[in-house]
């Protein structure tokens, strides 16, 4: 038998829990936005110290990203590798592996894709398909190695992926200077054959079909993670490895698989860039998309759709930063400062927020 | 290989071990207190730039060293606040700090380059030939003819061993890393210990960066750390979280670095080995580090590593 007082107490408690839940939903949405705003605020102080007018700088940044239709298309174009690489980091993180090796994986993806695009002779859709698949394979191999090493030998994936980034970048450099180098003075490969190039999807611009592939990848990763058994296993290993093992999930296999898939996605970032934009492989062809991807995944709250939005945002930033460089003479690398600050505000905010949530749960009206 | 070339190789090994050793022995303190610190890379980068900038503008490399240590401490303080006080993920925070440092050093250095048309060359530390010792044939030039910071780095190793295993402070650090709750019960201030260890680690990483910029070079080069912060972190793991082990691991990685530079300089040519494309020697330190980690076997991290300490969760 429950007394009126007990019922009232239960009701208050329920309300408090609900209040906390609503708060959390709102916060999940607001926190990334607040974190990015805070990073721009701190960034403006920094610019001011460096004797650069922050308002002028940010105006140039926004104009450079969205000022004209052409610039908006360029922003979309620059987001493509970020979407793939961001999804790669998101997927791995969900599976309990922090993949800092997207950079190396996309280098290997680009290498194999360019090899297929230049060395093979095939008719149009098949040549492209083979080149893309080899791009996936290159990234997969480079991702599966740290995944396997973590799963089987407990090797810290962060260190392994970072070391493998360097190895991949020098491997690509070797091929660009040696076996794949075109004849002549330039250290670059020949251009991939037209039969292996991604078609342009917007007449008069450079926007290519890789954009559709990226959107498709967002949907597929979402379905995989939240609507398949494999995805459920991946998330379970990510949230509680011991519990996952206890219910009979082969955690080592799942981790290696997660990293292979993650590497494959990163490989596509490199492959689509080469088959859609650059065509010729050169040294340091990536301005660091694999590292941007970390910010993309975290600011995207480790959700595929969030990663898409964050990739568009950071793509805009990379695009706008070029105009900012010409306008106020501040180098493009400034985006790393803003990305890093955004991550710190995000996770610092999320941790500080746990206290607020606990306080809301126990709060009595 | 003649004896002179061999001595030169070993000399280079000792030199190239030095930046790793500063970062690794410093990082060891933060690791043993239960804070994983992969932000060593970023702090080395910052130290390299600040040390160079101050040495360039004041003409005194020692002031550069001091300034770099202060800068390293400030960034470490930020890291400590976010990870210890707010309890945020140590690895994510470190990754963010590394990103910020790449951006910050890049922006500042490029502005500096744009403002100065001439060569950006700073005064460097003088080589200290230890009296008498440096006159011993072979051994003298090898061990006793180095920059002062080189001797200091190797002195830090026994010093760290003494602090860890012979002082109450070292005991407190180890206790906080293994069982923070027990340490707390005994009256050890867990957050304070971690703050101090992180700050010390930040200062030492910055010194490691200074060694590279105005020790072995006389200028700053973008991305001049080239993963040495991560290699230093690996040295701690491969060295099983002890000062001696960390030093031996650093020496191994330093040797790999020295050896690859010698290969590029043509050390293998007299042996009849054809020229190797430079990308392979450059890869060597990273490959050696990977292989070393592979053979480390199961890693015994400090029990409380990466776990933020919260008092209220009793």
Description:
- The complex is a heterodimer of chains A (365) and B (314).
- Chain A is 77% helix and 0% strand.
- Chain A is mainly alpha-helical.
- Chain A has two domains: 8-52 and 335-365, no CATH class; 78-329, ABC transporter involved in vitamin B12 uptake, BtuC (Orthogonal Bundle).
- Chain A starts with a helix and ends with a helix.
- Chain B has 314 residues and is mainly alpha-helical.
- Chain B has one domain: ABC transporter involved in vitamin B12 uptake, BtuC (Orthogonal Bundle), CATH 1.10.3470.
- Chain B has helices spanning 3-32, 40-58, 61-85, 90-115, 139-143, 148-166, 168-178, 180-185, 190-216, 228-238, 243-264, 279-294; strands at 128-129, 145-146.
- The mean pLDDT of chain B is 90.
- At the A-B interface, helix 6, helix 11 and helix 13 of A face helix 4, helix 10 and helix 12 of B.
Order of helices and strands of chain B: HHHHEHEHHHHHHH
Give the N-terminus to C-terminus distance of chain B in angstroms.
63 Å
**How are the strands of the biggest sheet of chain B laid out side by side?**
1-2
Task: Compute the number of helices of chain A.
Answer: 13
Categorize the overall geometry of chain B.
globular
Oligomer type: heterodimer
> Beta fraction of the residues of chain B?
under 5%
Largest sheet of chain B: 2 strands, antiparallel
Average residue pLDDT of chain A = 90
Residue windows where pLDDT falls under 50 for at least 5 positions of chain B: none
Number of domains of chain B: 1
Write down the overall geometry of chain A: globular
Rg of chain B computed from alpha carbons, rounded to a whole number of angstroms: 20 Å
């Amino acid at each position: 038998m429950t007394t009126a007082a007990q019922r009232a107490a239960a009701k208050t408690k329920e309300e408090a829990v609900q209040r906390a839940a609503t708060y959390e939903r709102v916060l999940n949405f607001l926190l990334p936005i607040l974190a990015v705003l805070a990073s721009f605020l701190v960034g403006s102080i920094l610019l001011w110290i460096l004797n650069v007018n922050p308002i002028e700088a940010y105006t140039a940044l926004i104009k450079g990203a969205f000022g004209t239709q052409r610039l908006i298309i360029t922003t979309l174009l620059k987001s493509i590798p970020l979407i793939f690489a961001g999804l790669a980091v998101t997927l791995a993180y969900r599976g309990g592996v922090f993949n800092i090796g997207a950079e190396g994986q996309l280098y290997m993806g680009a290498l194999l894709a360019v090899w297929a695009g230049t060395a093979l002779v095939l008719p149009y859709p098949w040549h492209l398909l083979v080149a893309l698949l080899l791009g996936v394979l290159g990234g997969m191999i480079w991702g599966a190695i740290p995944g396997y090493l973590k799963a089987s030998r407990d090797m810290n994936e962060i260190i392994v992926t970072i070391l493998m980034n360097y190895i991949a970048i020098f491997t690509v450099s070797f091929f660009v200077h040696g076996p794949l180098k075109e004849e002549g003075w330039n250290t670059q490969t020949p251009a991939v054959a037209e039969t292996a190039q991604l078609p342009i999807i917007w007449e008069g611009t450079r926007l290519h079909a890789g954009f559709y592939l990226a959107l498709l990848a967002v949907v597929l990763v979402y379905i995989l993670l939240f609507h398949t058994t494999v995805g459920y296993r991946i998330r379970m290993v990510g949230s509680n490895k011991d519990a996952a093992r206890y219910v009979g999930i082969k955690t080592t296999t799942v981790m290696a698989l997660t990293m292979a898939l993650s590497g494959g996605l990163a490989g596509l970032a490199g492959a689509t860039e080469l088959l859609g934009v650059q065509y010729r492989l050169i040294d340091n062809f990536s301005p660091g998309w694999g590292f941007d991807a970390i910010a993309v995944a975290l600011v995207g709250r480790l959700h595929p759709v969030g990663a898409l939005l964050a990739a568009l945002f950071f793509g805009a930033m990379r695009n706008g930063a070029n105009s900012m460089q010409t306008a106020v003479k501040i180098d493009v690398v400034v985006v790393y400062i803003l990305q890093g600050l955004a991550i710190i505000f995000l996770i610092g905010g999320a941790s500080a927020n746990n206290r607020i949530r606990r306080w809301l749960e126990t709060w009595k009206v | 290989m003649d004896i002179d070339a061999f001595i030169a190789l070993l000399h280079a090994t000792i030199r190239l071990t030095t930046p790793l050793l500063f970062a690794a022995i410093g990082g060891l303190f933060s690791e043993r207190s239960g804070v994983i610190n992969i932000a060593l890379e970023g702090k080395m980068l910052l130290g390299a730039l600040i040390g160079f900038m101050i040495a360039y503008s004041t003409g005194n490399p020692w002031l550069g060293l001091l300034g770099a240590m202060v800068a390293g401490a400030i960034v470490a303080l930020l890291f400590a606040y976010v990870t210890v006080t707010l309890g945020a993920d140590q690895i994510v925070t470190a990754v963010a700090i590394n990103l910020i440092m790449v951006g910050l050093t890049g922006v500042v250095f490029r502005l500096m380059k744009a403002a100065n048309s001439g060569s950006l060359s700073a005064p460097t530390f003088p080589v200290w030939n230890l009296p008498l010792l440096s006159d011993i044939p072979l051994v003298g030039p090898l061990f006793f003819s180095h920059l002062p910071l080189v001797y200091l780095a190797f002195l830090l190793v026994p010093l760290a061993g003494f602090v860890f295993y012979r002082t109450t402070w070292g005991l407190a650090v180890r206790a906080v890393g293994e069982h923070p709750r027990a340490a707390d019960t005994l009256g050890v201030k867990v957050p304070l210990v971690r703050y101090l260890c992180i700050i010390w680690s930040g200062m030492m990483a910055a010194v490691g960066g200074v060694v590279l910029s105005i020790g072995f070079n006389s200028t700053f080069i973008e991305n001049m750390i080239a993963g040495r912060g991560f290699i230093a972190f690996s040295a701690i793991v491969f060295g099983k979280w002890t000062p001696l082990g960390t030093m031996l691991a650093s020496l191994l990685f330093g040797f790999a670095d020295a050896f690859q530079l010698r290969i590029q300089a043509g050390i293998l040519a007299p042996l009849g080995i054809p020229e190797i494309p430079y990308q392979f020697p450059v890869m060597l330190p990273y490959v050696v580090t990977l292989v070393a980690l592979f053979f480390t076997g199961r890693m015994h991290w400090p029990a409380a590593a990466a776990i933020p300490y919260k008092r209220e969760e009793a």
